[in-house]
Amino acid sequence: MSVPRDPVEPDDETVVDPDWQPGPEGTRVIVGDEYVEEEIVEEEVVPRRLPTIWPWLLALLLLVIGGLAAIFFLSRDDDDPAGTTATTATVPVLVGLREDAARDRVREAGLEAEVQRRTGNKAAGVVLAQRPEAGTTIAEGSEVLLTVSSGAAQAAVPDLVGEQRADAIAALEEAGFRSRETTAFSEQPEGEILEQDPAAGEKLAPNGVVALTISKGQEPEPVVIPDVVGSQGSEAAATLREAGLSPNVVTVPSNRPGGEVVAQAPAAGSEVDEGTAVRLNVSAGATQTQPTQTQPPATTQTTPPEPAPAVVPDVVGGPLADAARAFGDQGLKVSVQPVPSEEPAGNVVAQARPAGTELERGDTVQLNISTGPEPAANATVPEVVDRQQADARSRLASAGFEVLSIQLRGNPSQVGVVISQTPDGNAQIPGGSLVILYVGAR
Q1: Which fold has domain 155-215?
Q2: Phi-psi sector, 321: left (phi>0), alpha (psi -120 to 50), beta
Q3: How many CA atoms lie less than 13 Å away from 214 in the CB half-sphere?
Q4: Strands across the sheet with 178-184, in order?
Q5: Domain-wise residue ranges, the chain
Q6: Per-residue pLDDT tens for 61-98?
Q7: pLDDT bracket for residue 349 (50, 70, 90)
Q8: Does residue 161 register a pLDDT over 90?
Q9: Distance from C-alpha of 97 to C-alpha of 93, rounded to nearest angstrom
Q10: Which conformational region is residue 175 in: left (phi greater than 0), alpha (psi within -120 to 50 degrees), or beta?
């Protein structure tokens, strides 16, 4: 505690030590010549609050950044469109193509194929529609939808067995099918459906073919042609009618007595259907010349009879071998033309001249021969004309063909030699077919 000094009257001004610094709490202050203790209280500092404008500044900053980014990317699009635009491709034409070919075209165009299937009027596997349409420009790698046919919608075949032909045909047409008909003798009434293929209930595409076997009724007993050569024409005709045959009388020159039957066709003993026409060649009588008035004494001359014309037989439906023999009996030859047919292989399906046609002996008639539903592979017919019959048959047999020889009377120098053949040498016909040889004979 300091000792107070005598009070001194202060001067007019207070003198403060220029080197004075505030001291710690409780520091004494000299006022004039006195020390005065004074408590120093520290002033409380209140923190300053930031202004509320900063969120707006932040939002403004983000807008500026976004705008700059947009300007940058837009300017890139303008400067280099190829760098930012996707590559495009043109959709090719696909309708009508097979599915595999359509897929290849889609892939070549840089696109992807997507397939859906539905029934249609095109064959299975054919493209019916496409989406997008041909010529459309789309991004590379996009999908092209192909609508592919799964085939025509199939329908059930109706049950036709036991129906009459007209009713069966109408039922098939109503169902959208076609028919193929064959006939056969049967115990069932004529015109009744005996068999069908496909069977009833099986599925078949529209316009499909149903094979029908139709009854011809009971098979008639064959008629054996009687031998009427040498009898009178009227008697021969009556005999044929009694046998259920149809006589066809033709008068021909002959040295036989007039009215006598000199030939008949088909030959006696042949088995034919009832009602078959039988040709009868009836002699017109011998033609004589009157004696001449010159010496030596008159002689009698007769004109040699003209050979009877050959009559074309009916061979359709029978095997080629029988047909060739029937023509050979009439002095006719045949030429063979293989044709596709549902008839059994080797059967005659048509003949160029109708049965009953009169031709000259030695004439040739073309026969169309079925190759069958499933023809054998073609083989080349060896050329055997002018070869001995035995050699020719051997060559043909070695090549896998059947052989039929028919004798023809002609030049004695050609006896035993192949005069002609059918089919011709080097022809392409199904293996195993019949080759006919016409061989010279006395």
Answers
A1: Trypsin Inhibitor V; Chain A (3.30.10)
A2: alpha
A3: 17
A4: 178-184, 209-215, 193-197
A5: 84-149, 155-215, 223-283, 311-441
A6: 888 888 787 777 666 555 444 444 569 999 999 999 99
A7: confident
A8: yes
A9: 9
A10: alpha
